[in-house]
Amino acid sequence: MTAPVAQAPERIAMTAPVGQASAPGGWVIRFFLPASIASAEAAPVPEDGRVTIATIPGERVAVLRYAGVPNAEAATAARARLLAALAAGPWQAEGEAFDWFYDPPWTLPPLRRNEAAVRVSRRPGA
């Protein structure tokens, strides 16, 4: 991960959250661009051909915020707590849970903001 992301002549600070989800053959990492970049065409051009700029339509997600170092064990536990909390309410998970991370690696663990997230829809009849 790099910070800041640069675009000539404008510099763009590192954005948050950074989304991470497993995918076949690796990971999908999402960086959210600031609102000042109004379209994919206005975004910086990636230097690596494996990086793509995409406009993602709005979506409704449920999140569970947690602190600490977001290692695999902590992230898995947070996703499980999120899905368990949804099981008893009016919202149902749509697809796999994923992770959002907000802080650079040097942030003290108790001050880190991490979120387990999942797309949701209203439960029928709720």
From TrEMBL:
InterPro entries: Reg_factor_effector_dom_sf, SOUL_heme-bd. Coiled coil: none annotated. It comes from the Bacteria. Transmembrane segments: none annotated. Pfam families: SOUL (PF04832). This is SOUL heme-binding protein. SUPFAM superfamilies: Probable bacterial effector-binding domain.
